[in-house]
């Protein structure tokens, strides 16, 4: 099939990364994918939508295809999809979280929900990756259940392989970021309203007191990077936190490879109950010990992670234990599970067959 693929958001977002993985995996499955390149960086006040709409619309009008798909149901992709539908193309929207709920209350959150709501129910298929999203889409967005298709967060298992990271690359990173003889904790995220890095930072004074030679490496950039840097300084832990800034996805993998452990933390808020952590799966697939809390989908990985209740002190105490050597082998069991069940090649292969059925 020929598939037209959009990301509603800019390249420096998780949605665009999900789009890129889906594109690459569909191509490996033999489909012809035209990926309309998104903007490089997120603009304040969602000006991304206005800036990208002309090129997205042009692509919709000039790219014959069997299926057109967009990641996230925003107008800059929803409207071009509807144009393609008028031309006889089957259209698909992927809903991968409730991003408007990260800004709880207020006009931005209200507008964010209203501008997304019309598009999913008008599509031929809507993909999601979380049981809570299923209920939200059927109950709040009025999507017919038979239009919904579960597309889990996947892993590019060839890239996220600890053995694929060259020893020289590891040494260069350790020297560049002054990590020699440090216990390295890796945290990968887009530093935006969805990011709960502040909770992790708040627990670091306790961690440093128990493990003076640890260092948290924050891999990623975004609108909130400056605020998180300032918070680390205010908490007195700026010297044991490194910020890499925005990196291409292939630049992220070596930072996971050099980690003694990796961390994920979700606050107990509505938006986090409709998320599925791509990074959690990538950490586990590389055989890393992962410290996380138990909000929503994270709780399902308790057999493969060193999991705590949703409490900063409890999370920090577990991180201390892991840095001091706690390990019972669950990370190896998790690695096998992730690589057998969450490969993007497997998931996108099934998606491609579902699209073929939709077209027929």
Features:
42% helix, alpha/beta, 14 helices, 2 domains, six-stranded parallel β-sheet, 360 residues, Rossmann fold, 12 strands
Folded structure, characterized:
With 360 residues, this protein is α/β, with parallel strands linked by helices. It folds into two domains: 2-154 and 343-359, Rossmann fold; 162-341, Glycogen Phosphorylase B (Rossmann fold). 42% of the residues lie in helices and 14% in strands. It has helices at residues 14-28, 47-62, 75-86, 106-116, 131-139, 167-176, 197-202, 204-210, 225-234, 249-257, 278-285, 312-323, 330-341, 344-359; strands at 2-7, 32-35, 67-71, 90-94, 125-128, 148-150, 183-188, 214-219, 241-243, 261-264, 290-292, 306-307. Strands 2-1-3-4-5-6 form a six-stranded parallel sheet, sandwiched between helices. It has a six-stranded parallel sheet with strand order 9-8-7-10-11-12, with helices on both faces. The mean pLDDT is 93.
Q: CATH superfamily name of the largest domain?
A: Glycogen Phosphorylase B
Sheet with the most strands?
6 strands, parallel
Strand order in space, largest sheet: 2-1-3-4-5-6
Shape: globular
What percentage of the residues does DSSP assign to strands (E)? 5-15%
> Helix/strand-derived class?
alpha/beta
What is the CA-atom radius of gyration, in angstroms?
A: 20 Å
Main CATH class of the largest domain: Alpha Beta
Average predicted local confidence, pLDDT: 93
Question: Could you name the CATH topology of the largest domain?
Answer: Rossmann fold
N-to-C CA distance: 11 Å
The total domain count is 2
- Count of runs of 4 or more consecutive helical residues: 14
- Please identify, by name, the CATH architecture of the largest domain: 3-Layer(aba) Sandwich
Give the tally of β-strands.
12
Please provide the ordered H/E string of secondary-structure elements: EHEHEHEHEHEHEHHEHEHEHEEHHH
Low-confidence stretches: none
**Helix content class:** 40-55%
């Amino acid at each position: 099939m020929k598939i037209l693929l959009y990301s509603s958001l800019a390249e420096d977002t998780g949605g665009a990364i999900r789009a890129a993985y889906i594109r690459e995996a569909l191509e490996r499955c033999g489909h012809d994918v035209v990926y309309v390149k998104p903007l490089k960086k997120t603009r304040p006040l969602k000006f991304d939508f206005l800036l990208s709409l002309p090129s997205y619309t042009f692509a919709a009008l000039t790219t014959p295809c069997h299926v057109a798909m967009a990641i996230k149901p925003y107008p800059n992709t929803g409207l071009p999809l509807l144009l393609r539908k008028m031309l006889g193309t089957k259209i698909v929207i992927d809903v991968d979280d409730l991003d408007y709920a990260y800004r709880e209350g207020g006009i931005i959150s209200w507008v964010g929900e209203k501008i997304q709501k019309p598009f999913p129910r008008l599509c031929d298929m809507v993909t999601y990756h979380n049981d809570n999203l299923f209920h939200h889409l059927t109950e709040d967005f009025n999507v017919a259940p038979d239009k919904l298709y579960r597309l889990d967060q996947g892993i590019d298992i060839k890239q996220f392989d600890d053995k694929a990271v060259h020893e020289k690359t590891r040494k260069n990173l350790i020297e560049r970021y002054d990590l020699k003889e440090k216990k390295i904790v890796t945290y990968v995220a887009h530093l935006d309203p969805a990011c709960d890095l502040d909770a992790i930072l708040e627990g670091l004074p306790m961690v440093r007191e128990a493990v003076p030679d640890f260092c948290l490496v924050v891999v990623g950039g975004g609108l909130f990077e400056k605020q998180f840097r300032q918070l680390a300084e205010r908490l007195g832990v700026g010297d044991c936190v490194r910020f890499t800034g925005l990196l291409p996805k292939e630049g992220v993998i070596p930072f996971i490879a050099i980690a003694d452990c990796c961390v994920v933390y979700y606050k107990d808020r509505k938006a986090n109950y409709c998320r599925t952590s791509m990074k959690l799966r990538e950490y586990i697939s590389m055989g890393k010990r992962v410290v996380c809390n138990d909000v929503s989908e994270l709780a399902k990985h308790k057999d493969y992670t060193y999991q705590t209740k949703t409490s900063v002190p409890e999370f920090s105490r577990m991180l201390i234990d892991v840095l001091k050597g706690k390990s019972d082998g669950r990370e190896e069991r998790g690695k096998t599970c992730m690589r057998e069940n969450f490969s993007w090649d497997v998931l996108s292969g099934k998606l491609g067959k579902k699209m073929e059925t939709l077209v027929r």
